[in-house]
C-alpha cells in the first residue's frame, strides 16, 4: 500500500478544487437557456434517490378502445413495459360519451403528496361521433378518478370546465403549482361566438386554457394559458424539475409538430422556446408525455404519439431543455400502439402492490 505524504494530499486537494470550479463554470452556461441540463434546472437528485424509485406505471388509451389501460415497467427499466390486467382496461368510464382518451396520472401535491393520485382524461368516444362534431359540440367536461393507493380508482366524475361557447375540452392534464398551493389544470379548447349557439360557423384558433382546483371537484373560472393565435396548440405536458424550473411540451396542431419551452422562474414565469419559433423536437406526432429516469438523474424520457402509425415511441435526452438533441430510444421492449397517456415513477412498495393486484 502506498502511504500518502502530506505533499501528495495537498496536490490532490488543489486538483479537486480546480476540477470543481471548472465544473461550476461549465454549468453556469445554462443560464443562457441553450445549454440547460438538469443540474442547472435544480433537479434535486438526492431527494429523488430517497424516494427509492423502483419502476414506472404507465396509463394509456388504445386507438379504437377509449379506456384506461395500465402498463408496468419490467424492473426499473424506463423503456420496457408489460400490460397489466392481461391487457384489459383498468378503468371504463360510465358517464359522458363512455369513452376516455389521453388519460394522465396526476400525483398529489402539498398535503396530498404521496397519499393521493388523480387520473383525468378527455371525454370522447370517437367511434360514436365524428371529428367535426367532436370539435364543434364535443364534451366540455373532463373525466376524473381518484385513488389513495394507485390501485383502487374511485369517485368517477365528469366536471364541466367551460361554458357553452367552447367547442370541446381536450387532453386535460394537471400539475401541482407549489407557488399557488393548488393544482393547475389545463386543456385545449376553441370557441364560437355567442351569436352562433349551434357552432356551425368558424371558431377561434385552439388555445390552452386553465383553472385551479384543490379537489378536482370545484374549479376556478377558466382563463387562457397559452394562445399562439393563429396557430392551434393542444396536448400540453409539464415536467417540473424544481419548485421554480419547468419544461412544457406541446403540440402545434397547425403544423403537427411537438416542441418544448423552458421557464426557470415558475409556471407563470418567462417561457422561452430554445432554438426559436420554428424549433421542434419531432414532426407528425402528438401527446407528448415526459418523465424523469429513475436511475440516470440527467436523463428525461419523452413519449411521442405517432398517431398516423404505431402510437407512442420513446425518445430521450440528457439536455431536455432544448428542442435539438432528442434521440429515439431503444424500442425493443416498448409496446406498440399505446396512445396518448402518461408515465409515473413509483417505488418498490407500489410496484409490488400493482404487480400483485393485476397479476403479472
Ligand atoms: C412508496 O410510496 C407509497 C406511496 O407514496 C408510500 O406510501 C410508501 O411509504 C413508499 N414506500 C417506501 C418504501 O418508500
Ligand atoms: C376503494 O376505495 C373506496 C373509497 O376510498 C373504499 O370505500 C373501498 O373500500 C376501497 N376498496 C378496496 C378494495 O380497497
From TrEMBL:
<dbReference type="InterPro" id="IPR050727">
    <property type="entry name" value="GH43_arabinanases"/>
</dbReference>
<feature type="signal peptide">
    <location>
        <begin position="1"/>
        <end position="23"/>
    </location>
</feature>
<keyword id="KW-0378">Hydrolase</keyword>
<dbReference type="InterPro" id="IPR023296">
    <property type="entry name" value="Glyco_hydro_beta-prop_sf"/>
</dbReference>
<dbReference type="GO" id="GO:0016787">
    <property type="term" value="F:hydrolase activity"/>
</dbReference>
<keyword id="KW-0732">Signal</keyword>
<protein>
    <submittedName>
        <fullName>Glycoside Hydrolase Family 43</fullName>
    </submittedName>
</protein>
